[in-house]
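Box 3.1 A note on notation
Throughout this textbook, protein chains are presented in two layers. The first layer is the amino acid sequence; the second is a token string describing backbone geometry. Keep the layers aligned when reading.
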Amino acid sequence: MKKLIFALLLIFCYLSVSAQQGPVAPCVDCESLSKRTEPHNGMWYNPDQSGSGMTLDVQDGKLFGVVFGYDDDGKSRWWTFVNDLSPSNEPNIMWTLNADLMQFENGNSFNNDYIFPTQTNYEGQISLKFTQKNHALYSINGGEEQNIVPIIFGVTKSRDFPEQTSYLIPELEGVWTFVYQYNESHPDVPPEPYNIFSEAVVISSKNIGDITQDGIIDIGFSVSRYDFFPNSHHIGFIYCYVTEESNEVVGPSCEFLDTRGLLGDIEIKPVYKMKLGGIGAFRLFGEDVGGHTFEGIRINAKDY
């Protein structure tokens, strides 16, 4: 059986701060979070091993993936896999997937008559554990697990908390759609689908907050809604921060604070806790203590 050494042809150079297992995405006090969100569709990789990666596409709970790599002879190869995402009861794991890797050959070259390819022998198995919307772990044939994240190549990103993690936080500035789903068990929440609504918002550029000799303490983004020209109003903040507990720096933690209140009640301002991997260049996800969720879908990254 061939040993798989994966390689993505897109080259992204980052400094490695781990033993090449990839960026961790710490989540402080996340034990109470129970809502699941489907992983980000697109190219994923381990930035500490530039050149490795895979494409992931989720449709209605089923994941199809393509791994790009080399065989033992250094020849470029690709493998496909497909299976259902399985809800996980493991702490801090949303979904798991185990699937056989398949390889195809003897197809036609470019600009020649089509030839239906043939599948080769069984090539092994891939295991995926999705911890957050933009963070996962994978292994091949029971090998060492690696952390992977979506590739960010068209949006500015930075390592804002290098002492805690190599996870890159993207610039969120631009137009987004926020989709809210309120927990039906709340006495004032109507039944589905009336408990779901969306709005277009504009997120400001990243603001660096307090900085000490030990590094950045917090970063933030302002969130505003633009209804009818020239009216606009501020609706909340997205921010990430570290704290000190027992002389130890903990975090970073991220949150979205909706300052308008819950269901119009300004006395109850929901704080959607966002796992660090809930902050991506094109997708956001958070959950508050009442089980209400929000998901951000980026429309564009224009400056405003």
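Confidence is low (pLDDT under 50) at residues 1-19. The CA atoms of residues 139 and 265 lie 46 Å apart.
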